[in-house]
Design brief:
Shape: globular
CATH class of the largest domain: Alpha Beta
Number of helices: 6
Oligomer: single chain
CATH topology of the largest domain: Rossmann fold
Number of domains: 2
Largest sheet: 5 strands, parallel
Strand content: 15-25%
Strand order of the largest sheet: 2-1-6-7-8
Distance between the termini: 9 Å
């Protein structure tokens, strides 16, 4: 079996590294970054992958405004463009290039948990277009609503704990230290797990 453990930085890389060291397979990364509300930077309204693949948590009407939180399509488009410029070089730093070969492979898409689900939804949209043989989402914790939505796009979902809702992933960890880019780079450059 050709297995790729595709981790979402930053916390997902730590989780992915542990999984890769147990299962074998190739550890790789996929940058998926949140887009936040213009009214409150603590509220995630979507996410974007390095190539511009995006996912929006808001629903827009014909007038171009969100019916619930009044965020324009234009704002989201601008944020997608801005975020892509911010993150497009990060894959090169961590993995050397922006080229992926997932066609026909089993892809295990990993993060340290799901809160709104935006980064994982953007990642699954991107990964599906790479035509993997099987797309599996693996996270330690996720809310039920996100699991239900992900089950429509992923072939399988593996998780340890599922609950109705929560504010952030860190609530489910005893020690939830923020992972920095340097740590991601160190893990990716000094892999001690088997590579296929």
């Amino acid at each position: 079996m050709s297995l790729v453990i595709l981790a979402i930085p930053r916390g997902g890389v730590v989780t992915g590294h542990v999984i890769a060291s147990i299962l074998g397979g190739k550890l790789d990364i996929l940058i998926s970054q949140k887009i936040v509300s213009p009214y409150n930077f603590n509220i995630t309204i979507g996410a974007v992958v390095h190539d511009g693949t995006s996912y929006s948590l808001t629903k827009h009407t014909g007038g171009g405004e969100d019916t619930m939180i009044n965020i324009s399509r234009r704002y989201i488009d601008e944020q997608v463009s801005h975020t892509v410029k911010e993150i497009e070089r990060r894959p090169e730093r961590f993995r050397g290039n922006n080229t992926y070969d997932l066609n026909g492979k089993t892809v295990l898409l990993v993060d340290d948990g799901i809160a709104t689900g935006a980064t994982m939804f953007a990642a699954t949209q991107w990964a599906t277009r790479q035509k993997p043989k099987e797309l599996i989402v693996a996270v330690p914790v996720a809310p039920r609503e996100s699991v239900d939505k992900l089950s429509q796009v992923a072939d399988r979902i593996i998780l340890i704990y599922c609950c109705s809702s929560y504010d952030n992933v860190g609530e489910h960890y005893t020690d939830f230290i923020e992972v920095c880019d340097d740590e991601v780079e160190r893990i990716m450059k000094n892999l001690d797990c088997p590579q296929e």
